[in-house]
Amino acid sequence: MFQTAFKYYKAKTPPPSFGEVIPIGSNHPKLESVPLPHADAKSFTGLLPPSEWKVYELSGHPGLLVVLNPFTPTAQRYWMVRCLADYPSHPNTTNQIGARQLIEDVGCSWWELLQTIRSPVEQRKFAKSLRWVTLGYQYDWTRKVYDEARREAFPSDLGTMVRYVAAVLGYDRFSPEAAIVNYYPIGATLAGHTDHSEDDQTAPLFSFSFGQPAVFLIGGTSREERPDAILLRSGDIVVMSGASRLCYHAVPRVCTDVELPAVLGTSAARWQGEDAALPRDDVLWSDVEQYIQYSRININVRQVLKANQQTLQRSGCASAS
Ligand SMILES: O=C(O)CCC(=O)C(=O)O
Ligand SMILES: [Fe+2]
């Protein structure tokens, strides 16, 4: 059932109908509003006051929470810039092995390397080939484990923001220790999987989406269960907690607004406006904006260790899925 839905939403011809895709923030019968445990929390720069957040639980998927974009446009740009200009830098690992060595040898960032490519065609090709960066505990994709020997500092701004969001949602003890930043050029997909490499599989996953919209499939603990499809747009947050923490999920489609019902408006409205401040003055917003017009970025944050656990248990650890 999961694979059938994945193939349906991935298909180019014929393209899928979005009729059954649940838009966050709508009056959809499957979106149950949940009251915030800490709606009175004091505000945090770049986020709306929690009393204004719209938080839902997806019916049939207990623990699967979605927060309608609580970010200001300036904060959206801030996180996009961090994901492009800062995070793909040494010592973080990226999928671009060749570039990774160059970045380490030359001591530049991925973004700086991108700017040195003069041919627009080659530049876009290089930009589109960035698919992931790991933060904090670096993930070993081959062995499907985190590596105690490669525990890097978790970016403090991201850690602070995630801890705040977690606390507002009632997860005061959540500790951000690893993140996978996923980069999806339009048309890219992420196949069905569960995330079970963490020693603590009870702590929720926090997933932040920026840029172009995506269809996100959430199923059950087996691939036989029929998934639901939700539409994630820039700034939306997904929390996989409780019974949904170990459920199958996938991203079968990253698209542009043109493919979506017009009532949803334009994604760019979520990151345009306010002052044009950027976290770094060596980054041109127009370059970031160009990238984000054909891409989605997802920051997927995990707690790896159990409460009071100091280091990874080398023996345990997860097998592939
Ligand atoms: O891109 C997404 O929304 C999901 C990413 C994901 O599931 C993962 O990184 O494990
Ligand atoms: Fe995942």
UniProtKB/TrEMBL annotation:
Q: Does the keyword Membrane apply?
A: no
Keyword annotations for this protein?
Dioxygenase, Iron, Metal-binding, Oxidoreductase
Binding site residues for Fe cation = 193, 195, 249
> What are the GO cellular component annotations?
cytoplasm; nucleus
What GO terms in the biological process aspect are recorded for it? oxidative RNA demethylation
Domain Fe2OG dioxygenase intervals? 175-305
Cofactor names: Fe(2+)
- A GO molecular function for this record? ferrous iron binding
Q: What is written in the cofactor note of this entry?
A: Binds 1 Fe(2+) ion per subunit.
Question: Which SUPFAM superfamilies does the entry mention?
Answer: Clavaminate synthase-like
Name it.
Answer: Fe2OG dioxygenase domain-containing protein
